[in-house]
Predict the 3D structure of the following.
Amino acid sequence: MRPADLGGDTALLIIDVQNDFCPGGALAVAEGDAVVPVINRLQGQVATRILTQDWHPADHSSFAANHKGVQPFTMIGMPYGAQVLWPTHCVQGSSGAAFHRDLRTDGAELIIRKGFRPQIDSYSAFFENDRKTPTGLAGYLRERGLSKLLLTGLATDYCVAYSALDARALGFEVTLVEDACRAIDMNGSLASAMDEMRQSGVSLCASDSLFS
């Protein structure tokens, strides 16, 4: 997606740039806050900006603290498939769930909250982790005539990748802005996610290529 392609059919999707995913947070991504100035600059290039926000109840089933004797980052089976048990993070109404203080949010047209159902996690901006329960984002984009997505945010190998893959499966044109994302990279998860995104037709670019 070249600068000339950034028109009225393009949306900037800003994934989970929240305090708990930034340095000092409960589930901090290394250099997570470094995406903020890049994303803020991109917001001046795209008219439609959409935010997602992890929004978990305290008793969420994906929290290791809610499974007796189980350590964070353990993988377990859930009715919808494999699930990483995470440290408690982005609890509804907490400071950790708030957007990073320097992230521009005033121009956002939509905020998609995800992960609010206690029994199922939600990485993607489009579906819960059962890959069937929709968030409604696809319908919003289609009704607005938005067919091209620029993806940014945290973390590249989880919520960003899941969103990119679902967007491609739904027929959207997707470009991942690599320097506007950071990864957890757990047990090779970043390389795996990048390979899967490339194979699905996700384009990759640096933010500088989107400025004329």
